[in-house]
Amino acid sequence: MKTQSAKFKAQNQNSKCKTDLKYRCYYFSIKIIKLLEKLPNEKIYWIISDQLLRSATSIGANIIEAQAGSSKRDFIKFFEIALKSANETKYWLGLLRDATKAKPTETDDLLKEADEISRILGASALTLKNKR
Q: Are the C-beta atoms of residues 32 and 76 closer than 8 Å to each other?
């Protein structure tokens, strides 16, 4: 059985992790925007850019929505949506890297960050559902 101090410490760590993830996703969105600003003004880039921008910025937005949720079920639902957006972001970044003139040096770090965020969200969703 956990002591009161241990429970508080665990809750504090959990709260800090959520805050860090929220800011991490915010800054990830900024990095995506800066990448997209560098892309050529050609039709192929418009489509990929639009989809990438939507999915990448959706991650953090859904985490914010989760925190404003009215129930644990709402919270979990928005975390799952954020996870789906993170996975979609990986797809668009990979496509941008492999099918266009975008430099892998510009996309690889973002792909790695999207993958890490995706793993955090997936683990969090499992924990929230008590499946871990």
A: no
Tell whether pTM > 0.85: no
104 Cβ neighbours under 8 A, 6+ residues apart = 97
Classify domain 4-128 at the CATH superfamily level: 23S rRNA-intervening sequence (1.20.1440.60)
* Of the candidates 77, 96, 87, 76, the residue with the CA atom closest to the CA atom of residue 117: 87
Structure-token pair, residue 46:
């418009």
Q: How many other CB atoms sit within 10 Å of the CB of residue 99?
A: 10
pLDDT at 3: 54
What are the tokens at 122? 């997936």
